Amino acid sequence: MDQNRDAHPPATRIGIVGYGNLGRGVEAAIAKNPDMAIAGIFTRRDPAQLQPLGASVPVHGMDSLLRHKGAIDVLVLCGGSKDDLPWQSPELAAHFNLVDSFDTHARIPGHFAAVDAAAQAGQTTALISAGWDPGLFSINRVVGEALLPDGATYTFWGKGLSQGHSDAVRRVPGVAGGVQYTIPVPEAVDKVRSGVRPELSTREKHRRECFVVLQDGADADAVRRAIVGMPHYFDQYDTTVQFISAEELARDHGAMPHGGFVIRSGNTSASSKQVIEYRLQLDSNPEFTASVLVAYARAVHRMHAAGQFGCKTVLDVAPALLSAKSAAELREQFL
Amino acid sequence: MDQNRDAHPPATRIGIVGYGNLGRGVEAAIAKNPDMAIAGIFTRRDPAQLQPLGASVPVHGMDSLLRHKGAIDVLVLCGGSKDDLPWQSPELAAHFNLVDSFDTHARIPGHFAAVDAAAQAGQTTALISAGWDPGLFSINRVVGEALLPDGATYTFWGKGLSQGHSDAVRRVPGVAGGVQYTIPVPEAVDKVRSGVRPELSTREKHRRECFVVLQDGADADAVRRAIVGMPHYFDQYDTTVQFISAEELARDHGAMPHGGFVIRSGNTSASSKQVIEYRLQLDSNPEFTASVLVAYARAVHRMHAAGQFGCKTVLDVAPALLSAKSAAELREQFL
């Protein structure tokens, strides 16, 4: 495989399945990687209505996907974890190498089993749950524990826009629109960074900030109470609710920033504390997630070429496989 | 291999070659990992004079190493990159799986070639240049570039004790003892974190702080000038020199803290900056480096069992191989 990589093989041809924020991000990410090319965008909508970023990018109906099999090295699935990926990933893994961003943590073992059966049968390579969490954060949790077995791991999210919590806010009666930001509590982050391994409650780790547009005539106090008391979503957190106009919502809250930290602190001896921190600050959550999927698509293409079939996760991928550079170049330039 | 891992195989038996700070750190790290065991410590000194941390740990002369071959799964080499590893790693890779921490960046390709030839011939697996830089920082440089190809990577070191620069200070005529700390310049770190991709000179990134004990009758001003003007080591930096007593040196500067940051910032679109940061804060540089070597020894043992012979680096190791847990446990608990 190294020899192939040194000889600069033809571009990895990516099929984009689904064209929302994530699909657009994948298209943008491929444009930044000269060794990758777009085979096509596949959509359940009317292909003629879709406006890709690149004017020359072919758009096809989902039902034509199998006919393009010979022109596609890896599919990047850009659908949702609730309704699309649970059936799409196993179905498509029977025929294609693929990467998905399945992020329903509790259902990952079941999703893995379904995709693995399909990929083993089809002799394809299918990597699930790529992205930053699950994904890059998962890697740092695993490696952190392996390096510092006598320690504790902390994950903080934010400051960032939470899609799930924003949806919950928008379902409250009287709410015309709104967004929710998850914010790590600085005192908790500082305490974790100091290496003392604090016990932290849910409330001590994150707070939640909502910006809400009221429907005409809605009762602000009732809306606020409904939000801050909402079970699971908000009742275990300190939550602030600010009411704003529809214009302010559109002007100030249209971006999708996110990020967070994984911190592992541990002792290598009684007197030596060691702290490992991995941190992301993202202006655009979907564009960054898309960039992760594209790098893992490169790795999947290589793993398939090396005969490594079946379902994989980011935990199975050696760092060198993510890079467009050859193993020798990497050793010379990055070690 | 997964099946073996799920069945909890016998411990990985480690031979420690060399017993300075790093060797002691490896012994301490193995004690924190229930799936690892010490086969023995091998030294060029008189074995009877060595005091391992664990009273029951066997100590042998280096010349007996080959006789213990059947009792050792992986050697962890704890010698220096200048005098020991260039000949030791190729020589021992002919007979043993091993991990070394070779850190002379410019000589890594040559070292790789020598070790690879020996390991291919001996059908062993030999991982070179493990640790945190080269090592964990290298991984983050490679992955950062792969995820954000339109971007820039910055490495900052410190605050930490630099062995090489401390040695240089101690060679200055008139110096009885001393240490040197490398310190990242906060303004530079902040600028990099903001995602603006600044061009930074050597002087703008780090400053150097020396604590020096003078010999009786030495000229403080001459010593200071000799240090701050020393080519390569200090002349390109803002360096401060503080004179202290031998007691203060022993009391306040005996620890070996270190650490640093790898920051990748890049754009996924014109309006979206993304910043990835990997940070280490280490109370003890040798103990942490030792913990990294031990985790990679676990991976080397598995790669050898899977028939992956030859020279490897941290860039070739999938995260799951570093963990004592099975692939299924990792997917369930960490993804």
TrEMBL record, chains A, B:
GO terms for molecular function: diaminopimelate dehydrogenase activity; nucleotide binding. Homodimer. Residues 131-284 form the Meso-diaminopimelate D-dehydrogenase C-terminal domain. Signal peptide: none annotated. Pathway: Amino-acid biosynthesis; L-lysine biosynthesis via DAP pathway; DL-2,6-diaminopimelate from (S)-tetrahydrodipicolinate: step 1/1. Substrate binds at W157, T182, R208, H258, N285. CDD domains: meso-DAPDH_N. This is Meso-diaminopimelate D-dehydrogenase. NADP(+) binds at residues 19-22, 43-45, 78-81, 101-103, 130-134. Its EC number is 1.4.1.16. One of its GO terms (biological process) is lysine biosynthetic process via diaminopimelate. It catalyses: meso-2,6-diaminopimelate + NADP(+) + H2O = (S)-2-amino-6-oxoheptanedioate + NH4(+) + NADPH + H(+). Keywords: Amino-acid biosynthesis, Diaminopimelate biosynthesis, Lysine biosynthesis, NADP, Nucleotide-binding, Oxidoreductase. The keyword Transmembrane does not apply. Belongs to the diaminopimelate dehydrogenase family. It comes from the Bacteria. InterPro entries: Diaminopimelate_DH_Ddh, Meso-DAP_DH_C, NAD(P)-bd_dom_sf.
